[in-house]
């Protein structure tokens, strides 16, 4: 038996199964006296939960354990979920907005216990088609709360008055907004949960007001965003005087565990945990056995799961300020003031996720929409939007109450425009065949900062009307590429987003072979341009669009149902790579 526990340093370590000093929470040989051989099982655990998992493994060791007479060696690593997500995404061919590349030294574990099932959901919807983690059942939970300095919370009626997300949204968008922060929702599950709740609250207002509320909330949160949780916590007030309170962070979506641990350090200004209604998606710590591991390891993982779901494990969770999966808590749990009581009919605690599906049956596209909207609202870029106006765009979309493909596409572009702040530069082209004499494309609005031409772009979208021509795809794409390249801007993602519902039909234009050769010739690695092509309907050639987009440096997305163009547009923009 070997052991290498590094106490608090290990519990706080951020790494992904990388053998470095302080990187391991623990190493346990869990075996009965009569076992032989060895099954090595690597387990990556969210840092705040790792000590409880390690302690349970220690007890399992003392009792002796094996699988079919074979010894089990378990390594438990405290891991930042976003780092493991990057590794798993790379292994399974998924792209997750805002996650970035995996560390070159990171290794995919056999078992992953992140802080939220939304990670599993995002991997699945992000392109990991074969990603089916086993089990996925929750082993712990922590409600997501709005953390607020107690003096500010008291002014809002805490802890006597019950507060809701719509009230918080109102404070965010007021003339004197509450200074609110968030950990990047693309990289933090509690931040994503809070963002989802705010987006839902904005949608409930209905109509154009909902869009304004949503965009306002995104930009307010973005102004106080932090990449790391500890950086966000450092923004809370360090003194209780009025000046400090006014200048410091006033509210942030965090886990209940975060608030308990923060207050345990006896800060000058404690945090109140506000349990807003409706209850946001909690952290649910799913036990995910990753696909592709050997049957013997899968069996060992099953036995370990049993050790983490015993009655005594609830007390180990309490020592780490965590609840059991059903919302109950164990002995020694120090509940914040106003905390909802343990589960048992208390609707203020949202149910944890089970089986790798987000709690409450949360739709995957709701998560993707929130992540994509955030990415667009917090990034800056330079983009040329190119819209197909060939005759086929006049076709009605059955699922859009009779609106045409042209109308659905233009509306998606208009809604996307609302998300871009004034730091973006955007231009608008349309294309068909022989649209301007023998030329297939027409510039409606040149690329320029939105700060001075937002209304002009709105008017430009009003002028997008279907022609009677065909699809002059190749000539248009080449011309658009050269236009963006001619005025390439450093420090921004320079991109082209082209919408089309057909194949190239311009017999007098450039061939695909010539297009690919010319793109290869003029492509400059020091001035990258990302080309995103969104195919509309079932008549596009995915292979054609994939070939063109990949050679130009980008990707193709297909909206077989044109009503989904808006979501695909947001996701495509969000997945752009930031400039090096």
UniProtKB/TrEMBL annotation:
SUPFAM superfamilies: Periplasmic binding protein-like II, vWA-like. PROSITE patterns: VWFA. Residues 382-573 form the VWFA domain. Pfam families: SBP_bac_11 (PF13531), VWA (PF00092). Residues 329-355 are annotated as: Disordered. It comes from the Bacteria. Coiled coil: none annotated. This is VWFA domain-containing protein.
